[in-house]
Fold:
Amino acid sequence: MTVSPRPWASVVIPIKDERENLVPLTERLLKVLHAREESRSAPFEIIYIDDGSTDGSAAVLDRLANQYPQVTALHFDRNYGQTSAFDAGFRHSTGELIITMDGDLQNDPEDIGALLSSVDRYDLVCGWRQHRHDTLIRRLSSRIANFVRSAVTGDRVRDTGCSLKVFRRAVVERVPLFDGMHRFFPALALMYGFTVTEVPVQHYPRAHGVSKYGVGNRLFRGLYDLIAVRWMMKRVLRYRFRDP
Structure:
């Protein structure tokens, strides 16, 4: 019996009402990943997690999954939030690397290559949106939240809110997730002794759909969750066995 090789990468993408973005996103991802597949002699997979969409995204995802063998569509029975979607994607993934991104086409799949260039030296490579195309309110709220989070956790990451990231599998298997903790992936990875870096990536204006996040759930909730992360950092278990 022939055993299929383990995917070299699993792309995990939470989806909430992104119907018009799904086809172009999938086509661009397939183009980028097929080019990488040839050099790695291993397959890849794209895992979409439908987080309770009500705009017809579910049907589009099912069509894409039927059309492309690399695509899997998972459907929540209601909206649970981005952290739950990431967790479900991580648990269903089988790749040696896990790539995360948003489904709104504000991330450029071409930038995956820039992140992969650093994954041999780091366990978690984060995208950094140097030139953001968001509203002034969103940029200010993110800047404040990033400054406070970095000061408290010491992760020195300038843009933890960028969903475009590449994880080694050991990171997602080790780091525990609770609601809202996707905002603190770098800090949690560092807490468990993994290495983290940032790479500049592009950012585009949203062409279709509307943002699911505002000041209330981006700034104030993030600051509230920061208290929990700080507590975890002080209580995390760190031990080593001595050499025989």
